[in-house]
Amino acid sequence: MGDTASATASYRDRYRAEKIGRRYSGWAHFAFTNITSLTVIGFAIAHVQHPSWRELLVIPIGFLISNLVEYLGHRGPMHQRSRGLGAIFRRHTLEHHHFFTHELMSYDGTRDFKVVLFPPVMLLFFLGLATPIGLVLFALISANAGWIFVAVAIGYYLSYEWLHFAYHLPESSSVGGLGILKALRAHHQAHHNPELMGRCNFNITFPICDWLLGTCYRKEGPAS
Description:
Elements: H1 2-19, H2 26-46, H3 53-56, H4 58-75, H5 86-99, H6 113-116, H7 121-140, H8 143-167, H9 179-191, H10 208-212, E1 217-218, E2 221-222
Antiparallel strand pairs: 1-2
Helix pairs in contact: 2-8, 4-8, 7-8, 8-9
């Protein structure tokens, strides 16, 4: 364990020197993620007018769709080399999982936020995924349904960023010690075990699809 921790520490030093520019600000990155996401969510909600209960069903359905997309994206291109998506695999499997292991989950300083948070451009990518679905709902159901879906999808993206950030807080953090967060952190920490990361615990937020699809880690091994 000592040799592994030392290797991880050495990798972190090299990564910071080679990949994190001097002008990078972790707090500016965090603020951009929050402000931009909340602006999109607020804009979408502001266009919802007197929704019916049928239109409000988009909230749980959109949440479950987002959970499935998170699961498939993590289990797929983030951990499997795919043509055209190699940058995602490199950043996640080759960089994030070397920077954070199940033995060293916490960041050391705000510059490490770059390895925890999605690059800012990823918000445009997720908005690009949500918008076509929102337009389909707009055309087939109502404007409310389309706007609600966009709000839910970007809200899920933001919850992903918040929760993932919490999992990599220092162990002494009072936030990380909260009951539900402690359990979710343990779920994600098991995924950071190099022997398990390609097989278990692909949900970062709520392990709904992990449970449904049998990939929740158990001490005796992954469910099959």
